[in-house]
Specification:
The complex is a heterodimer. Chain A is mainly β. Helix content of chain A is 13%, strand content 41%.
């Protein structure tokens, strides 16, 4: 039933774009891993002898497509054309051969490099239709270091064409990690990197990294001055500055969608409450005033409401509130321990962590608390953060031992491990799409 | 910076430990769970210091320093009778050592979200501070900090370990 609905939704989107654009065949939801696609490394058109850049591009694109959960990636060992010698336009491609190995879609392209600059042309082909798909075909130019982002943009465009929704992979993840073995620091990761990269040099306790909407800075709380305060790190300069001045303890902070204000949790006299502060850290308004714990504010994308965790009924539950402090509505209705809300950038869902089944699981619900669905089951899964497309989430999970970041779609049908290595990766935050 | 702080604490402890030893038998004894020889060689372990300073020096958090830890139930920050008994003895020690200041560290077990546990640890530390001040200990002798679940004593996932980690630990600072 669900499959049929998804298929028809996809076909409607494609039909609206004009009949020439339709890829023959259907694509069903994340987790199906059923749409067969072949990713051929872009051919060297000059300046990439040995094909290192092309290989990097193909590796990153293949990973993105695999993570999306829609595709069956065809094994390069079975490819019917030599990437280095075969043509890259519809007239030159052996569509019959590609169809014979089961490919429904094919990615080919060419890359030329001069100095640090590269030009990459990449095309998506409809194999049964024996034609290229202009909507998902691109020419990129940039530096050698941009080849990963070119792959992510290609993946995002392919997902947009095939599913009607642009992919989320041209973005970054932030997390707290102990992977360097020196207490905690904030790390960032892009989908083409092998390992997360350290962004701070706190060697202390760091809490709750949150992206500035332009994805160029992160807010986080740090114990660098004994008590926890809110800081930001500029990812370009690596400079760390205080976001909220003064001696007050701040446990977490989240930027408004327009980047002009923050919601922060201040702890005073043992009690934590949520405040709206301006860019200079000055209090605009106190939003909760309750003897119970209020913590973890998460903005709605319209900037008018936010979700938060409060223990005002005796156990932690998820609530939403207007940013002027009015209209408090409880969102979580089952379970005695619900924390760490995250509001989808599409506005239509809230994810949070629930205690149950001997551990913690990720729940996805609507902002009014309807149709709550638990999307994880193996290990403990905590601190969900939404992808910019509102279709996927990242969270920390212990299912593979230690804390690692995992990705799932919002129905939990596809579940993929993102980070590996030493230490614990926790508190993930998925950035907006990069500019 | 952190080095000088560490030395300050170490110095304070050198001053306070003998005082502690001299106090009534009722008072918690210093050095419990602290330094001591292990096996054949000379065992050496730093005493005191905040849990974070200790972690920066590669040491685990201290359990039961000069003042004994107070424990809590899961997701709770109220005192039970055992906690009140421990605090009664801690009050006694603080009365006999009027120049000593303490920092109360709120800690939580590994279960639950990091931010929520930070808020919960703050509640626990405040509960203990309130108890001490109602017993006449001056509020300006007591500071509080929450480490949530960030600096656990033990790392096993079982009730024994969780119970040890749900605590308020008092770090004695110099006058």
């Amino acid at each position: 039933m669900r499959r049929i609905m998804l298929c028809s939704a996809v076909l409607m989107v494609l039909a609206a774009r004009g009949a020439h654009a339709v890829v023959t065949g259907t694509i069903v939801g994340p987790g199906s891993e059923s749409f067969p696609i072949a990713v051929v490394p872009p051919k060297d058109l000059g300046g990439d002898p040995g094909g290192a850049l092309g290989a990097r591009f193909a590796k990153a694109l293949t990973r993105d497509l695999d993570l999306s959960g829609y595709f069956k990636l065809i094994d390069p060992k079975t490819f019917v054309e030599n990437p280095e010698t075969s043509g890259i336009t519809a007239g030159e491609i052996d569509f019959v051969g590609w169809a014979a190995i089961g490919a429904q879609a094919l990615v080919k392209g060419g890359i030329s490099a001069a100095g640090n600059g590269i030009t990459l042309e990449v095309r998506l082909f409809d194999v049964p239709g024996r034609k290229d798909v202009p909507q998902a075909s691109k020419r990129f130019s940039g530096g050698r270091d941009d080849v990963g982002r070119m792959a992510h943009r290609t993946a995002d465009a392919i997902l947009e064409f095939l599913t009607g929704e642009r992919g989320p992979f041209d973005s970054k993840l932030a997390m707290v990690s102990t992977r360097s073995g020196r207490l905690k620091d904030v790390y960032t990761w892009t989908f083409d990197q092998d390992d997360p990269v350290r962004a701070t040099d706190e060697r202390s306790l760091v809490i709750a990294p949150r992206w500035r909407p332009d994805a160029r800075a992160l807010a986080f709380a740090s114990y660098r001055e004994h008590m926890p305060h809110l800081f930001q790190v500029d990812l370009g300069t690596r400079q760390v500055t205080r976001l909220v001045p003064g001696p007050g303890v701040v446990l977490d902070g989240a930027w408004s969608p327009d980047g002009t204000r923050l919601l922060v949790t201040r702890e005073e006299g043992g009690n934590s409450d949520i405040y709206l502060v301006d860019r200079g850290g000055q209090v605009v308004q106190r939003l909760t005033d309750h003897w119970a714990i209020d913590v973890s504010p998460a903005w709605a994308p319209d900037g008018r409401r936010f979700a938060f965790c409060s223990a005002r009924t005796g156990s932690p539950q998820i609530y939403v509130m207007n940013v002027d402090g009015s209209n408090v509505v409880r969102v979580s209705h089952t379970g005695s321990y619900n924390t760490s809300p995250a509001w989808s950038p599409k506005g239509d869902h809230i994810a949070y962590t629930t205690r149950g089944g001997g551990g913690f699981q990720v729940v996805v619900t609507t902002p009014d608390g309807g149709s709550a669905q638990t999307i994880t089951s193996a290990g403990s899964n905590e601190d969900p953060s939404w992808a910019p497309d509102g279709r996927y989430l990242v969270f920390s999970s212990t299912r593979a031992g230690g804390h690692r970041l995992f990705l799932a779609d919002r129905d939990g049908k596809t579940q993929k491990q993102l980070t590996r290595g030493a230490g614990d990766d926790t508190s993930p935050a998925w950035s907006a799409r990069l500019e | 910076m952190s080095g000088s702080w560490t030395w300050r604490v170490a110095l304070a402890l050198l001053l306070i430990v003998p005082l502690g030893s001299a106090c009534k038998k009722k008072g918690p004894r210093p050095g419990e769970g602290g330094a001591g020889a292990a096996g054949g060689g000379i065992g050496e372990e730093g005493l005191g210091g905040s849990s974070l300073e200790r972690a920066k020096r590669g040491l685990g958090p201290e359990e039961n320093g000069i003042l004994k830890d107070v424990h809590f139930g899961f997701d709770r920050y109220d005192l039970d009778s055992e906690g009140r008994d421990i605090l009664a003895r801690n009050v006694e020690w603080l009365r006999q050592n009027p120049r000593a200041k303490v920092e109360l560290e709120g800690h939580c077990d590994s279960r639950g979200t990091i931010e929520y546990n930070l808020a919960l640890g703050a509640k626990r530390a405040k509960t203990v501070k309130d108890y001490l001040t109602t017993q006449g200990i001056a509020a300006d002798r007591i500071s509080t900090i929450s480490y949530g679940k960030e600096l656990p004593l033990c790392h096993d996932e079982n009730e024994t370990c969780w119970a040890r980690n749900r605590r308020v630990h008092a770090v004695v600072l110099g006058p």
